[in-house]
Specification:
single chain; 7-stranded mixed sheet; 7 helices
Length: about 200
């Protein structure tokens, strides 16, 4: 594990906040997304790029469809030949930004959202309304893992709001069928919020 070079206190603190403390972890990020973090400026990006090059590493490449987001998205976001993995990734992002078009496209009409111990919502309209009522300005979204198999998928990660509030989530997805363009029938979400 290679320690981070001296990139200044604001940049170091920004990376520390998202649990990035080594160059190996930096190499899994893309510079475009990383530069969206408050405190990480062009000088820090250049220092990190040089340090990565010296170690035979480089920044990851960002999928073009993620470049328009106003916040940092972290994690193994490549979907390659896994269409359901892309659907899960994009549903998480659409839920964070309140993208009604995408949610309407990929959630089944009889969609169910369950947050155990809290509530159960029926219908994608109820889900979209609930999401939009609680939209917050996001600083970063980390999708730590995504797994898909047949009609099922799961993901977990962390959302950090611009206010500093941290939200950890784990979600289990059930698709309508095994087809690669199947809609999501049910999401069970486990959520932990920390001020």
């Amino acid at each position: 594990m290679t320690h981070l070079p001296k990139i200044g206190k604001p940049a170091t603190n920004a990376l520390d906040k998202i649990n990035v403390t080594t160059l190996e972890q930096v190499s899994k990020l893309d510079d475009h997304n990383l530069s969206k973090l408050h405190g990480v400026g062009p000088k820090a990006i250049n220092i990190l790029k040089e340090a990565l090059n010296e170690q035979g590493m480089s920044f990851s490449k960002l999928d073009a469809d993620l470049s328009d987001l106003e916040f940092t998205v972290l994690g193994d976001l490549k979907c390659d030949n896994a269409p359901k993995r892309r659907i899960v990734r994009d549903i998480v992002i659409a839920s964070v930004v309140g993208d009604e078009h995408y949610l309407n496209e990929w959630l089944a009409d009889d969609f169910i959202w369950i947050v155990p111990g809290e509530f159960e919502l029926n219908g994608k309209a109820a889900f979209i309304e609930e999401i939009n009522e609680h939209l917050q300005k996001v600083s970063s979204l980390e999708i730590a893992s995504m797994l898909t198999h047949g009609k099922e998928a799961s993901t977990h990660g962390t959302i950090i709001n611009q206010t500093g509030e941290t939200i950890h989530f784990a979600e289990i997805y059930e698709f309508e069928n095994h087809k690669k363009d199947s809609k999501i029938k049910k999401i069970t979400s486990y959520i932990i919020m920390k001020p």
